[in-house]
Amino acid sequence: MNMVNPGYVVVEGPIGVGKTSLAMRLADAFGATPLLEHPGENPFLERFYQSRKQFALPTQLFFLFQRARQIEQIKQGDMFSNGHVTDFLLDKDKLFARANLDDDELRLYDQVYTQMSLNLPVPDLVIYLQAPVEVLHERVRRRGVDYERLIERDYLQTLVDAYTQFFHHYTAAPLLVVNAERINIVDNDEDFQMLLAHIRKVRSGRHFLNPLAASL
C-alpha cells in the first residue's frame, strides 16, 4: 500500500513503546525513506546503563551528532524521495540531557546543541506513543538486549514523566498522541489501519487516539 506522500513524519516515545517498529511500517506504507536511530553504533551506551553518571555526557553527545547527520538528509532534500519517517525528534534530545547530566555537563551540552540544531526542519506530523512504565519495562525485558536489562523501573519512570511534560507543551508540529498500551499497531493490521485513519485526519493541532477509552 502506498499512501499519499506524508512529507516528514516522526514517531516518538520512551524506550520499549515500539517507535522504531512503527516507523518502519509507516515508511513502508507511505513508500517513504526511514531514518532510524542506531543505538548499537553508540560505543558508550552499554557503559551508560552500567554507570549513568560516568558515561551520560559522551552517550548523549554521540546520539546528538548521529541524529543531526540524519536530519541533514531531510534538510538537503531528494527529488526522488517520497518523504521520510524517523523514530526520533531532535528537539527532544534535551529531555534526556536534563534527566542524566549534571549542571556543568548540561551547560556544555547546551552549547553543542545550539550549534547542531540550527534550522531544524519542522515535521508534518509527530506521533507520540504512550504506555505505562510496567508495560515498557516488560517489553524491554522481552526483547532481550543484554545491556537494556540494566534499565531500572525508576529510570523508566523518570523518562516517561519527562516525555509527558515535553509533549504537554509541544506545539511546533501537528501532534497525534497514541495510547499504545493494549493495541498492536506494528503486527495487527486492524490496529494499524485504525492508526492510518487517524493520521489521514490530522492537519494541525493536537489529536488523541485512545482505543481503551473507546472500548469502555
Strand % is 5-15%
Poorly predicted spans: none
CATH C-level: Alpha Beta
Average pLDDT:
89
* Annotation field: number of helices: 9
Strands across the major sheet, in which order?
2-3-1-4-5-6
Overall radius of gyration:
17 Å
The SSE string, one letter per element, is: EHEHHEHHEHHEHEH
- In CATH, the topology is named Rossmann fold
> What sort of overall outline do the alpha carbons produce when their principal axes are compared?
globular
Helix content: 40-55%
Total count of strands: 6
Q: How many domains in all?
A: 1
CATH homolog superfamily: P-loop containing nucleotide triphosphate hydrolases
Task: Please summarize what this structure is.
By secondary structure, the chain is of the alpha/beta class. It contains nine helices and six strands.
